[in-house]
What we know:
The structure holds 2 protein chains of 2 kinds.
Chain A: H1 2-22, E1 28-29, E2 38-39, H2 43-63, H3 75-90, E3 103-109, E4 112-113, E5 118-126, E6 131-139, E7 147-150, E8 153-155, H4 186-198, H5 212-225, E9 230-238, E10 243-246, E11 252-266, E12 272-273, H6 279-283, E13 287-288, E14 291-304, E15 313-326
Antiparallel strand pairs in A: 2-4, 3-5, 5-6, 6-7, 6-8, 9-11, 10-11, 11-14, 12-13, 14-15
Chain B: H1 2-27, E1 32-39, E2 46-49, E3 56-57, E4 60-66, E5 72-79, H2 80-87, E6 92-99, E7 103-109, E8 127-132, E9 134-140, E10 146-152, E11 162-168, H3 172-195, E12 199-202, E13 213-217, E14 223-226, E15 236-238, E16 272-275, E17 281-284, H4 286-289, E18 294-299, H5 305-310, E19 318-324
Parallel strand pairs in B: 2-6, 12-15, 16-19
Antiparallel strand pairs in B: 1-11, 2-10, 4-9, 4-11, 5-8, 5-10, 6-7, 12-13, 13-14, 16-17, 18-19
Helix pairs in contact in B: 1-3
Amino acid sequence: MTGRAGRCCAAALALGLAVLAGCGQVPQRKDTAAPISKVAADGREIDAIYTRYRDVRANALKLLDPEPLATVESGPVLAIDAGALQVAKRLAGTRPVEESQDLRIERVLSPRLDAYPLWFVARVRDNVKKVTKVQIFQRTAATAQWTMVASPEALLSTTLPPFATDDAGSLETIEPEDDTGLVSSPTQAITDYAAALRDPQSPAAQKVVDDSFIQQMRQVAGQSSAIKGVTFTQSWGARPVEFAMRTQDGGALVVATLLRQDGYEIADGVEVSWPEGSAQKAFLSNKLYTAGLLRYYHQVLLYVPPEGGELPRVLAQYGGVVDGEGF
Amino acid sequence: MRRIVGVVVLLVGVLVVLAGAAVMVVLGPDDRATTGPHRIDTVGVAVVTTPRAITYAGPTVSVLAELPDDKPVFVGLGNAVDVQNYLGGTQRLSITRVQVPWRITSRQEAGEPNLSAAPTALDWWEAQSAGLGGAAITVALPDEPVSLAVLAVGDSDLEGLRLTTAYDVAGGFLGGAGGVATGLGIGFLGLMRVRGTPLRRAAAADPEGGEARYVFVDDAGAEHEVDPADLDGYEIVDDAPALTPPPVPVVAPAPAPVAVDEPEPVEEEVVYVLVDEDGREREISASEAEGLEVVEEIVEDAPDPDDDERGDGHWRSRLRRALGVE
């Protein structure tokens, strides 16, 4: 019994362990302490979402009809694009409208989120406009569609700080009020930026870089102020920050929307005519006699450097008229 | 102590065998355990598991939801973040705990009486099915938190709902068999440990010091030779004659020291042979050989005349000295 029994034992053990090792998947108990969350969208979903967006947008541009856009865009970016299409449609007789697109996704990153709204960011190269777009797609509810809600554009020559990701490859996000490791929180940075646009002499103007966007906006305001017989006023505000992402250098990229309001008070006996093809001509009456008001959205990509670094500055923007009235 | 260890090992083996056998019986050759149908008492439009209710990942689960009168029904599994956002505002029966094979804990939650959107219109279900009178899904439970939802479609409700679930564990039956085999192996080891019948080390293979042999003596007194490689667990009792200085293998528990005597020298047999001038040989005694020149000749492997006479077929070495005369 001894030698044979020993060999039987060994054989039984070896066989059993081999079978156990090779048998199917053993149920694993989940980590009950793990947060309930999900990656906003995977690659397959994103491909489908972007393909649909590209097709619908191309169709809307072709028809100069903002209505289809509402199925793939929402929020400020829809307002800006719809405004642009409205301008193009009203001025179609006087200005050739020919917009094509060649959009290619360079990188897509999704954060891991524990509740709706879900969102992800795509860096897209537009070979027609020669810009890089940083586009945010959002799903506000489980029953809603994915729509694009932001699309600031940077020149191809602009270097965008790379996004930081966690160990699983998910985009690292920052709470709008969190200033950990930053020169200021995303909310504070965009508030300072809007204040700097409103008043170059304000203390807040010293907290942001006097970048090309601020200079362009001041130049436009200066041109409007120079119209004789017209009192021009301009105000700026910022919508609450929704999207802030950590960069690999420890800073943050903040996608925010600025509201700009241009007011025109016409002096008695003066009439103002707008140049052909301008947004003012499309939204305001052909001639202004009393007053006019134009509202703009500007979506900006604001870089907030890490603590001890430079000041916040805008790297990309996308904006346009969204509303207007005049008489 | 040896017996206690043996009993413990034996019990472990038995438990492993029982567990493996239980898995085989529960799953069967198709690797599937089915339970149901179970009636769910609800008149609402939604039955949904909470995010922590499904605690396992890996196995494939099939769920069949049935409603009477061919009422339309939907079954879907989705990420808990999606499902909670979708159904969080709906009046529903929340299943907070699921114990396999079928034991659930639930609570009724208030909300809107109708779904905010048709479940079939949503694109985030990881598995979904809809049908009249019944719908079924089969899905591998992912590692992420998921919720299972059974929903009424249209203006219907879930009154009369019955659920049947099946758990597929790929290779589970084979795994159970592996458990049985492993348990048997462990059990045998324990059994041998408990019986602890000592091994006897048999005499050396030859008196000049060959390898030791080990013999197991069973209850009937019969001896069985054991391979030295299989000695673990045996108690070694030295039973070898004191002819050879045995290198005793150390086997736990260590055998008692054995006194070993020096082997007695084997007396060599010497034959003196006188060779005369004619070359003839004549055997002489040792005393006669004194004073003569002795030429030593060793004869190896020569047949022993005695052995030959005995006819036992054995040969032994023989030393032969031949005497020469000048």
